[in-house]
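Lecture notes, structural biology module. Today: joint structure prediction for complexes of two components.
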Amino acid sequence: MAEANQPGIDIRNLWKVFGPNAKAMVPLLEQGTSKAELNGRHGHVLGLKNVNITMPAGAIQVIMGLSGSGKSTLIRHINRLVDPTAGEILVGDEDVVKMGAHELREFRRHKTAMVFQKFALLPHRNVLENVVYGLQIQGVPRRRQVEAATRWVDRVGLAGFEKHYPNQLSGGMQQRLGLARALANDAPILLMDEAFSALDPLIRTDMQTVLLDIQKEIRKTIVFITHDLDEALRLGDRIAILRDGEVVQQGTSQDIVLRPADDYVKAFVKEVSRGRVVHVEAVMAPFNPEDRSLATVPRQTTLDAAANVLMQHDCEHLTVMDEAGTPVGQISLRLLLRAIVTPADDIG
Amino acid sequence: MDSFWKFPTMDADTLRLLKKNIDEGFRAFTRAYGDSIESLFNPLQSFLIWAERLLLATPWPVVIAAVAVIAWIASRSLKIVAGCVVTLLVIGWFDMWDDTMKTVSMIFVCTVLAIVIGIPIGIGMARSNRLQRIVNPVLDVMQTMPSFVYLIPVVMLLGIGRVPGVIAVVIYAVPPMIRLTNLGIRMVDRDVLEAADAFGSSSWQKLRNVQLPLALPTIMAGVNQTIMMALSMVVIASMIGVQGLGQPVLKAIANQYFTLGVFNGLAIVGIAIIFDRISQAYGSRLQKHREIVHG
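The predicted structure, tokenised, for the full assembly:
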């Protein structure tokens, strides 16, 4: 597939203000008018405040925040279901904000596909006809529509249900259908708006696995919205945390867990099991050839996995290796424990 | 103190002059344009005659068989099919077959016309709040204005006959078609529409693939209402020369023939029930996908 030329998404100085005279509010906000002041004195509501995110191509970018943080508004800017008040959204080298109606329609048909929190399936169409929808809109010949749809129905595990209507499926199956419908489009960008939030915890984990498996093959640029930090850490190659329409921190899972930018992020991170997120290379000690352990782990190993290896070998410490097989550090039980346990001053 | 007990009115001469002027104006308009307007309705006239001939020229067993087949396709229920056939047989046995066929053909033409006019207007109203604000009061007037009142100008323009009858019936019967089309489209789930937008649907694709199919059950309820209202106008339409079951009823009123009135009245009820059951069964079959919920 077209791995090499997947576009990244670059959001620059994006502002969204709701209200009758939104454009005029941006300069005021740039001069430091607060959200409360904007609401009280000017009667406008701040949606997004000067958002800058660079989303790498072919990776999963998670945008996390509680309800009302503006994350659903933000994802709808990428295919312009919501129009921005000011700013740029560059996909590849096209600015979505500057597109005309026709251009925008073509962009939505060929460049993006979307999965919704409430599934938003077509209730009057059966599974196969739902999956076909995007291709039908593109004007693809019927035979190719059915071919692609059958393949994706199969891939998400709905084979045999082609003739069922959405109402006959369970929540998890409905979202598999939503995912198949989006993937059948074969668009380089996949937008997922709280796609798994409405599902039971077990089914949610299941769907995350499905998504990660599929992503290994297709390498699309995925923007994933969630309010669940565990989900964010599991899926996200990069994570941006949104609060009151403002990006408070962005980085990899490790950056977020090990170096929370403020108390808001810290409160989120408190409950996370670090052992599953943090890699040994982030906490290891320098390599000491005098004291070399024969048990080794790659540097991308999580702390949990490293602790397992340590116990199997029943030794003092492990040697951490890079991809080439050269030792780059070592890690002891003490170091592992100190990193896994939440620092005392952060508890309660 | 007089004007407290008696409502002050404009003086009688002014009022008379006003009415006279409007009447004369309309009469002049009729004389000038009556013929050309009448020729405008020629296609409708031939459609009406064609439909009536079709039903009258077809042998009765064929008509009954056709109704049975349509009832089966629409409802998939033997009970409804049997009900339709028996009703028609009874109507025929009481010697009301020809009048019934004339009425059915007119109802058919009126319904087709109401659908052709009503659905586009309903779609327009669903898309534009401004159009909705303009059309709604017009529909209110059409539904509440006594039908005799708008029969007067129609008869003045077009004379007596089938066409003015159909126009009067359609004016009365089209509002539910328009209202329910509008309502059905406006009730379509916003989330589904957003999904359609996200996939890059043009507004025509959205209408055809999402809005109309999801509004169809509501639109079918509109068709059902339109048929029922058209049937209720049959007697009034017969006053301006529309043939069918209405005319014997009219005769019965004038001459106090109790039985004649009841028989023909019951025949109207009979075909109303046939139309109603068939169109409702079809409407609920359209909603099948909504009923089966994952349990």
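Point to remember: Residues 40-288 of chain B form a domain with the MetI-like fold fold (CATH 1.10.3720.10).
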